[in-house]
User: Which sequence fits this backbone?
């Protein structure tokens, strides 16, 4: 059997709990002689495996930098002008343009 899996985290890259889950799942399948191709975005540290029937395939044109911070070297001022990491209080009666972003942001270099 051959399985193609898609995820956005795999050790050593961890931004949350998905990497641990994907690692356990792919290794368990591999131990059962299932061929697994795990597709994920490029990261700073390439993911590797010692399992012969498990392939970690990084795809995309640019690296993914989830949860970047304003002091990150990956966020350049010419690409993003304002980054807010918190909710700021808005005075009553004051109009504020609000953008709700749910998901992740990928920066093209």
Assistant:
């Amino acid at each position: 059997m051959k399985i193609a899996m898609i995820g956005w985290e795999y050790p050593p890259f961890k931004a949350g709990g998905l990497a641990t889950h994907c690692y356990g799942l792919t290794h368990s399948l591999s131990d059962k002689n299932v061929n697994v191709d795990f597709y994920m975005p490029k990261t700073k540290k390439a993911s590797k495996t010692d399992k012969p029937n498990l392939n970690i395939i990084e795809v995309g044109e640019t690296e993914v930098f989830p949860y970047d911070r304003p002091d990150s070297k990956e966020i350049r001022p010419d690409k993003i002008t304002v980054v807010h990491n918190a909710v700021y209080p808005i005075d009553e009666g004051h109009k504020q343009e609000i953008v709700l972003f749910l998901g992740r942001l990928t920066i093209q270099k």
Observations:
- The helical segments are 18-31.
- The first strand starts at residue 2 and ends at 6.
- Residues 70 and 76 are 9 Å apart (CA to CA).
